[in-house]
Write a structure and sequence with these properties.
The protein is an all-alpha fold and 52 residues long. It has a domain of 30 residues. Helices cover 69% and strands 0% of the residues.
Length: 52
């Protein structure tokens, strides 16, 4: 019972955590590159995948 409980708890914690990272990643990808940051290229999914 303890194993099932901890797995359920981890799943419940992982859902909002995963959603938050998905929204954060989409914001980085969709947002146009800001000219205020020097040398910044348009965001692509590749650095995000490598960083995760």
């Amino acid at each position: 019972m303890i194993l099932f409980y901890t797995e359920d708890a981890l799943a419940l914690l992982a859902v909002p955590y995963g959603l938050a990272w998905a929204v954060f990643g989409l914001n980085l990808i969709v947002r146009p590159s800001s000219p205020s940051v020097p040398g910044r290229k348009p965001a692509s999914p590749l650095p995000l995948l490598m960083a995760s």
